[in-house]
Amino acid sequence: MQNEIKIFCSEEWKDYELLDTGEGEKLERFGKYVFVRPYEDAVWPKTLKNEWEKIEGKFWSSRKGAKPGWQMSKAVFDKWEMEYRGIKFLAMPTPFRHLGFFPEQASHWDFIEKKSIKL
Length: 119
Hints:
mainly beta, Immunoglobulin-like, single chain, five-stranded mixed β-sheet
């Protein structure tokens, strides 16, 4: 029997997409921008080799020996608008490798909404 990894992600994201993972990193699309961020648990090989070259920014971890922090192309703005199910918010790179929100939490937001009593 093969081990199965299950990732819970909201199917309603239009502005976020996890594109690939591997070799200690994850490749993600946030709106129109694609970024690479550290993901130490991803010990397997990357799948989409060519897509990793088409990025607007990368967060370098101090563990990789580079100067830690974001390295961005000039095409990326300091802030840009994103949307999830009609809720608009700003995404922005932080010094801690985040972009101001946690897209993997959207499935939790959906669950809470379904379980909440609407007044």
